[in-house]
Amino acid sequence: MQVIENCSASLSNYEVLNLLQKVEPNEKMNNLATITYLASKYLEDTPCIKQNPEKIRKFLQEIGSFNLTKCEKLTLLNLCPTTPLEIQLIIEDSEDRLSDDDVEAVLQIIANLREDEQQDTKQT
Fold first, then answer.
1. For the whole model, what pTM was predicted?
2. Residue 7: pLDDT above 90?
3. Is residue 106 part of a domain?
4. C-alpha dist (Å) from residue 11 to 99, 103, 121
């Protein structure tokens, strides 16, 4: 295999799931079909299933006011933590970089991102 264009970017789970859903099964690539299926099934059980480009855009705008790295923002988007402890595990030196109020604000932003998911869970 030859790399034609060397371009790397970090993708959110939502973007990966979108790409995997567009992959067409091919008899010659049986292993690829298996990996695609398993990865899709895994991602369907994560918060990304309820995300959309508008929610992600809004999340990134709101989270932009905090001094977080791109990797930390992506991890927050992918994992959607619900407790201050999870925030501490995701954000390096969070005790020094974020106040308790900041952590609560981040959790509220994430709660807004997960809003539809939580409403669906309550209805079932």
1. 0.83
2. no
3. yes
4. 28, 24, 26
Residue 33 has what pLDDT? 87
80 close to 47: Cβ distance less than 8 angstroms: yes
Q: Tell me the C-alpha distance between 92 and 30, whole Å.
A: 40
Q: Based on the fold, state whether residues 110 and 59 are members of the same structural domain.
A: yes
56: Cα separation from own chain's centroid: 9
Average pLDDT of the residues in 96-105: 97
Q: Which residues contact 98 (CB under 8 A, 6 or more apart)?
A: 66, 87, 91, 106
Residue 112: closest CA among 67, 66, 50, 64: 50
Put residue 93 in one of left, alpha, beta given phi > 0 → left and psi -120 to 50 → alpha.
Answer: left
- Is the domain of 109 the same as that of 64? yes
**pLDDT 10s digits, 13-49:** 999 999 999 988 777 888 888 899 999 999 999 999 9
| Residue indicated by tokens 């369907």 | 44
The helix (H) or strand (E) run that includes residue 91 is none
Note whether residue 5 is domain-resident.
no
